[in-house]
Amino acid sequence: MVGYFNRYSGDINMIPSPQLARTHEGSTQTLGRQMLRCRLVRALALSCIAGIMLTSHAALAQRPDVPPLIKVVVPFAAGGGSDVIARAVSKQLAQRLGTSVIVENRPGGGGVVGATVVAKAPKDGSVLLFHSTSLVTGIATSKKPPFDVTTDLLPVAIVSEGPMLIGVSASSGFKTPQDLVNAARANPQAVTYGSPGIGSIGHLGVELLVDAANVQLRHIPYAGTAPALIDVAAGRVDMTIGSYSALVSQLSSGRVIPIAVTSAKPNPSYPDLPPMASAAPGYNANIWYALFAPAGVPKALMQRLNREASEAARSGEVQALLKPDGGAPVSGTLDELAQRVREDFAIWKRLATEKHITVE
């Protein structure tokens, strides 16, 4: 607006200025554009926030709920090989999951008692089982299995797999796998082997060798590894099989001599020992340690446990325990690990059925 003096009325009149009008109009348009931009920015911000919230909700829905306390059941007495490894793995698992993990020993029934407890445990991942190959051999030889080892328990991770050793009495004269096989063929039932008991991996592992080599050996069962090993060292029994840790007390004395590994291929931890398969084609009797969960635990949690337990198995602390026995972690998806357990169970079940090996 501009003003001018009206000489007739003595007033100052205001009339619009074309220039100021144009300026005012431009300001109005600028203000309108700014308001529009503000609305667009606000709408975009709200859209982003909504997207973030939806993503967060989706992530939370997919993230497995780790129990505040996980109990790992070891179905053997405290202080044994399984117990020591289980405690090292549990320690690593607790750190990786950010939760409390405790170990509970539930011995009995050759490991079946503790396994049964876990098979019937809540399906929320709060109770796990740490077991060995004896889980499948125990159920394979059980007259009345308390659960189905292939469907009621599912493997979370195979922490370690490795060979056993063929240990012979120093007085037997056997120096190589072929020496043992030749002697057994020359005199059926003359060569003896000691095991920790009927249905044990030390029993079934040798019976698998008997089939692969097409020989006959005489079984002498004992109540545990120690007494069997003592008689092998004394020369009263010709041979036995077991992990390095189980045999080391007599291996170091020189009265029990390792002549082979039970794996199909040589093991880097025992570079001087050939596989027993060199004299018994097809023979393979590895043992493993694994973490299991009751069937029904949510898949997302199973995958998390699989990932963290597999990493725990590769930690320096756990590897230091596994290396003397030639053990190494087994990689694989949950489905692949479950298939491996089913295959192992089928092997031992067939053997137990054919040879009528049962345990009450």
- Computed over alpha carbons, the radius of gyration is 36 Å
Which strand-content bin applies to the residues?
15-25%
Low-confidence stretches: 2-10, 15-24, 48-62
Structural class computed from helices and strand pairing:
alpha/beta
Q: What distance lies between the first and last C-alpha atoms, to the nearest angstrom?
A: 111 Å
Order of helices and strands: EEHEHEHEHEEHEHEHEHEEHHEH
**How many runs of DSSP E, i.e. beta strands?**
13
Mean pLDDT: 87
- The tally of helices reads 11
Biggest beta sheet attributes: 6 strands, mixed
Strand order of the largest sheet: 4-3-5-12-6-13
The backbone outline, from C-alpha atoms, is elongated
What is the share of helical residues?
40-55%
